[in-house]
Amino acid sequence: MKRLAKWRLISLFAMLALVLSGCGKPYLSALNPAGEVADTQYDLMKLSTYIMVGVILVVVVIFVLVFVRFRRKDEKIPKQVEGSHRLEIIWTTIPILLLLILAVPTVASTFKLADVSPMDKKNTKALIVNVRSHLYWWDFEYPGQKIVTSQELVVPTNEKVYFNLKSMDVKHSFWIPAVGGKIDTNTDNANKFWLEFDDKRANEAGNLFYGKCAELCGPSHALMDFKVKAMSRDKFDAWVSAMQDVKEPQKATTASAVKGQEIFNQSCIGCHAVTPANKMPDTARVAPNLTNFGDRSRVAGILDHNKEELKNWIKNPETYKPGNMMTGKYGNLTDDQIDAVADYLMGLKVQE
Amino acid sequence: MHAEEKMTYETWPAEPEKSTLEAKNKFVGFWLFLGGETVLFASLFATYLALKDKVPNTSQPLAKDLFELPLTFLATMLLLTSSITSVYAMYHMKNFAFKKMMLWLGVTVLLGLGFLGSEVYEFTHYVHEGHKFTSSAFGSAFYSLVGFHGGHVAFGLCWILTLMIRNSKRGLNLYNAPKFYVASLYWHFIDVVWVFIFTVVYLMGMVG
Amino acid sequence: MTNQPLSSGNPRVDLEYRRKKSAEEMRYQVISFALMIFLTLVAFAAVAMKGFTAWFTVPFIILLAAVQVVFQLFYFMHMSHKGHEAPTLFLFSGLFVGLTAILAFSTIIWW
Amino acid sequence: MSTIAQKKGFGATIWDYLTTVDHKKIAILYFIAGGFFFLVGGLEAVFIRIQLAVPNNDFVSAGAYNEILTMHGTTMIFLAAMPLLIGFMNAVMPLQIGARDVAFPFVNAVGFWLFFFGGIFLNLSWFLGGAPDAGWTSYASLALHSKGHGVDFYVLGLQISGIGTLIGGINFLVTIINMRAPGMTYMRMPLFTWTTFVASALILFAFPPLTVGLTLMMFDRLFGANFFDVTMGGNTVIWEHLFWIFGHPEVYILILPAFGIFSEIFPIFSRKRLFGYSSMVFATVLIGFLGFMVWAHHMFTTGLGPVANAIFAVATMAIGVPTGIKIFNWLFTMWEGSIKFTTPMYWAFAFIPTFLMGGVTGVMLAAASADYQYHDTYFVVAHFHYVIVGGVVFGIFAGIHLWWPKMFGTMLNETLGKITFWFFFIGFHLTFFIQHFLGLWGMPRRVFTYLPGQGFETANMISSVGAGFMSIAVIIMLLNVVLTSVKNVKVGNDPWGDGRTLEWAIPSPPPFYNFKQLPLVRGLDAYWIEKMEGKKGMTPAEPLGDIHMPNSSFIPFVIALGLFIAAFGAMYHVDKVSWALPVMIIGLLITFGSLFTRSVKDDHGFHIHKEELQEEKGAKA
Ligand code: HEA
Ligand code: HEA
Ligand code: CUA
Ligand SMILES: [Cu+2]
Predict the structure, then answer these.
(1) Mean pLDDT of all residues belonging to chain D
(2) CATH architecture of D10-553+603-618
(3) What are the residue boundaries of the Cytochrome oxidase subunit I profile domain, all occurrences included (chain D) (predicted)?
(4) Ramachandran category for residue B66: left, alpha or beta (phi over 0 → left; psi -120 to 50 → alpha)
């Protein structure tokens, strides 16, 4: 009985080891670090894992010895040992030493990751992004570039990007596992931190990282995903100027899209902006900015980016994101109208 | 030993509050409770300090606009004095002088009532100035901390009064002596908290 | 579990001794009360005289409050008497926990 | 006495339990209620695992999932684990120190009924418009945003049961301080008593911050206050601090008594005294102390700044040291011992590697900058189930098997016990080991579903299968309880044969006055010492005399009932319904009225006379 269970356990762990060698998806997994912050954290994770495996080994060796050697064989009463000072000193000091080995890099990296001093310098060249979290969607403002986008963060690689994060309703948490640990977006005041996106490893991950909300924030907390497009500085600059060029809402081209734009201007524009300028304060931006909606890779952060899914979303957002803030705010649209709006929205692109 | 046995001055023990197992338990248990209350009040103090002067708009009064020395001083004197009077009561309790004990407890209750009265007056005054429980985080924190203390005072008064009425005919015995003692401990603790309230809330509030 | 404190065998002597003891203690308590009132007056005065900076006044009045509370605890609540080991331990532990919380709330709740 | 109880009718037995102030019966009440809530919480866990077994599942809706999740955490921590442990404290600690009851039997009953009514109140939310859905941590911004009365149920229910726990804690402390048998010095107390002592102290200091936090939340939600409303100057981080100042010590409130149980089991079944007794005591106290200085490790990502994060990180790691001392002392208790693998020993033995894994991942979490990755992911879920289930639940199972004969006079079936163990053990590791990796692969916790294609499918399925195994184990365990109660084979004082502490020196179940004569304690493991000298029982420390016992009372039930009623009034008060305020006032009047009755009506208890005790002696032998 006991043997059997042991074997089962061993084979189970062997199987797990196989699964683990996968390390998860490169665009999502913290075990596939793709930037300086994630690297630092990964190193610390590895260091602590080694220490812990060491500790576990020591305990398990004693444990197994106890198991095989000291089972009851006769009715003798063993010697009643009170304790041992030497042993006690050993198992007090060694853990202290191990913890010191862990504590030093922990403290060092904690300070390193919290260093946002370039943000506060006047006329800083550093790229700053103001992240505003809303119930189930993300707003990204580039104050230096004077543009706003939503749901998909666009960043240059191989440089530090600084973030200024705040929530507009309830607490959320901003997390891009492959690029670095999370930080909460509080309702009270802004948090700051930085991330760095490594060019080569971004490429390997398909230049599209998955981001998640990591703080319970209501029914659709599970669906509050966002995406990160990491690109070289040149491409990023090109994107910025393409965005900045959109001064007026883009004109629809096809007939259907023209009709869609009309409907949009009636029903939707009250909440959704289609120009990127950050003229409004963050509190007034109540819905995702759709300027470059056609360039996105997901609808509402979770659905595949195609016209069908877009139509589904507009038709009934509630089925896809329970409790979202769009449901019921724009009257009833007929299927034709929805089709037209979808045509319009799919055409909103700033890049070729 | 039977707790309700009639005692005389001669048989009355030196520490009537700890002379039976029940009494000892009550004594230790109540002190532990005060340890917990310390944390309770500390949490309220901490909250108050974090929310002091946090108001939604500038039209609302801040600590330095609200508090006034004379009223706080009056309240403080009333409560501090009630502390020494309850010490007197316990002094007479230990000397098996029931009447005197009751007298001093009575004085304590009166002083406590005076304190409560001044607090009620103060609160209504603030409400008129726009400093309400619901008007700001500052208001919520202020009334919670000071009001919670006031609630303790009120509870303490009821407690002492109940004890006095219940035992007015019976005189002292080893069953009720610990009760009186514990109630007086409670009263002192309320005083201790007040010392911090007048310092941290009122005086520091006026300093700015 | 019976009354056995301070017994010399002779009840009369005991009683007198006890009487004197508690009278003496009462005297101490009156003195400490006077001191407490005095400390309170000083604290109020420090605030009433607008001359000092807050950097001086605040720590000063907190110190006064702390001293006063020591009087309360040790004289009025008899915490220095024997038989108060557990109360002392637990009161100070509570104070420790409470002060940690206050420290945290006045430093790392930062806005 | 026990024979008299058996002859009573069903109604009389119920009344007996409703009015009891006997710590052993209160313990049984705690077991019944805590066990019931464990099943409820377990069922909720099973729902969680069913929902997460496959991606995009719609077994439950998003909103319902959050309710289940919240209630699972809240129920398990406050209404299952803690009450079950308090049950052990009630059942065993007074016996271990040689006391006839706890210091305040009446208050003990009040504590139970408050916990019970608080728990019932919380769970009634399921039927009255929806359960709380803001997580067991109920962070303020979400809690204030939450519609309906769910969070109000959380706030009021926990407040009521929290008061019960608090007075329970004070009661145990006083019992241990004042009521130890002659010769039972602090350093001769069994470790379970020590951990009860320290855990009770933690309760005493940890619950007030929770009380305050809940009060502020109640004021905000029900009475228009603005503690957490940012637009009115409020601050949500205050809640986080208050909650965790309570919340971290809480996890040690859970684990320390479990450590105590294991510290009884290893010596008994190794036939060896506890290795390093004084360092075990020291480590227990140190863990309790450090437990109050680390709470912010739950808030590393809140943005407290690097200084605070670094300080709390290092302080947190420090707790690994005293815990390590304990682990090694247990191992060396068994070293050169004569180990018998009974069911309690199975659980205790398996606890060591299991808890160890949870402990070391705890230290990994303590590394603040790395915790930015782990925080709020399944890695944390794995960590705390390893320590809570692998530590606390294993401890509870171990304790139940160990002390069942003492409490009920009959043994649980060993074979069924071992089957339970294997199912639970395997299921447990299946469920939670893989969750470490889910977290690292990027799966946040508290998600009602996950999308396909992110690599989470297989692992979640494995995890859900494991939960199935655990369910089977729990059902077998229930079966065991039923079967053995039906058989009811009576056992003697020391059914395991190797009992060391005082509880094994008296009959199983003990008479309602526990000790006819208080025993004289001559050292650590008092009963063992006597046995080794060839004696049958303890040497009495006093001549046979009258025993003073407290009267039963229905007042404790009424006190708690009053608050239960008042809570409804307070909650519906915001809906502006006309009956709310009167109901609240009536409830409070009931509570304070019964308190008043209690304080003016003298209750001196009764005496069992010497003669009766002598008679019983004849009857028993
Ligand atoms: C019984 C409950 C219990 C116990 C005992 C512990 C024990 C520990 N916990 Fe855990 N913890 C929880 C219950 C518990 N925890 C819960 C419920 C949560 C989540 C709450 C929520 O968010 O919902 C949590 C979350 C949690 C976090 C926050 C994670 C996050 O949300 O980001 C952290 C971070 O530091 C942490 C750390 C620790 C540490 C360091 C210990 C230590 O006490 C462990 C010490 C033990 C050992 C280390 C093993 C034995 C030691 C040796 C063999 C010696 C040698 C060892 C070394 C040198 C390392 N825990
Ligand atoms: C004491 C504490 C405790 C215990 C024992 C458990 C036990 C279990 N827990 Fe839980 N858990 C928590 C405390 C606990 N948990 C906390 C605090 C949270 C965080 C909540 C939050 O985020 O707010 C959490 C969260 C949590 C999650 C994460 C959910 C999420 O983040 O979305 C999961 C997921 O797998 C989970 C699973 C389980 C499982 C499978 C068990 C199993 O061990 C359960 C085993 C028990 C059974 C299987 C019982 C079976 C019962 C029956 C079969 C009924 C039979 C009925 C009758 C006969 C009437 N728990
Ligand atoms: Cu936003 Cu979770
Ligand atoms: Cu913790």
Answers:
(1) 92
(2) Up-down Bundle (1.20)
(3) 9-522
(4) alpha
pLDDT confidence band for D1 (50 / 70 / 90):
very low
What are residue A213's phi and psi, to 5 degrees? -90, 130
Give the pLDDT confidence score for residue D602 in this predicted structure: 79
Assess whether the C-beta atom of D136 lies below 6 angstroms from ligand 2: yes
Number of domains in chain B: 1
Using a CB–CB cutoff of 8 Å, tell me whether B4 touches chain D: yes
Q: The dihedral of CA A118, A121, A122, A128: what is its sign? A: positive
Q: Which residue type does B40 have?
A: L
What are the backbone angles phi and psi of residue A208, rounded to the nearest 5°? -135, 105
- Name which of A143, A187, A139, A192 is nearest A167 in CA terms: A187
Q: Is residue B10 in some structural domain?
A: no
Res. C12 pLDDT band, cuts 50 70 90:
low
**What ipTM was reported for this prediction?**
0.93
- Are the Cβ atoms of D233 and B40 closer than 8 angstroms? no
C-beta atoms of D216 and B137 within 8 A: no
Q: pLDDT tens for residues D198-234?
A: 999 999 999 999 999 999 999 999 999 999 999 999 9
| CATH number of the domain within which B122 lies | 1.20.120.80
Q: A277 Cβ partners below 8 Å, 6+ apart?
A: A146, A147, A148, A247
Specify the pLDDT at position A15.
Answer: 59
Q: What is the pLDDT of residues D113-170, one digit of tens each?
A: 999 999 999 999 999 988 999 999 999 999 999 988 999 999 999 999 999 999 999 9
Helix (H) or strand (E) holding A156: strand A152-156
Position A10 scores a pLDDT of 62
D261 burial class (0-12, 13-18, 19+ CB within 10 angstroms)? Answer: buried
State how far the Cα of D461 lies from the Cα of A34, in Å rounded to an integer: 28
The answer to whether the predicted template modeling score (pTM) of the entire model surpasses 0.90 is yes
Within-domain flag for B87: yes
**Which of D203, D216, D217, D226 is the best substitution to test chain B (most B C-beta atoms within 10 A)?**
D226
Per-residue pLDDT tens over the stretch C36-54: 889 888 888 888 887 777 7
Containing H/E element for A153?
strand A152-156
Domain regions of chain D by residue span: 10-553+603-618, 558-601
- Substitution target in C90, C92, C108, C110 with the highest count of D β-carbons within 10 Å is C108
Q: Which residues contact A103 (CB under 8 A, 6 or more apart)?
A: D313, D314, D317
Window 70-89 of C: residues touching B by CB (8 A cutoff) are 72-73, 76-77, 83-84, 86-87
Is residue B189 very low, low, confident or very high in pLDDT (cuts 50, 70, 90)?
Answer: very high
**Cβ pair D558, D541 in contact under 8 A:** no
pLDDT band, residue D620 (cuts 50/70/90):
very low
Domains of chain A: 25-61+85-232 (2.60.40.420), 255-346 (2.60.40.420)
- Return d(Cα D226, Cα D228) in angstroms, integer: 6
Under 8 Å between Cβ of A139 and A164 = no
Q: For chains A and D, count residue pairs whose Cβ atoms are closer than 8 Å.
A: 291
Ligand 3 lined by A172 (C-beta under 6 Å)? yes
| Angle in degrees, 0-180, between the axes of helices D414-440 and D457-487, rounded to the nearest 10 | 160
The pLDDT value recorded for residue B207 is 81
* CA atoms in the 13 A half-sphere facing the CB of A89: 2
List the one residue out of D513, D425, D461 whose CA is nearest residue D101: D513
pLDDT higher at B170 or D208: D208
A159 in contact with chain D, both atoms CB, cutoff 8 A: no
Residue D287 Cβ inside 6 Å of ligand 1? The answer reads no
- Whether the CB-CB separation of A75 and A151 falls below 8 Å is answered with no
In-domain check, residue B29 = no
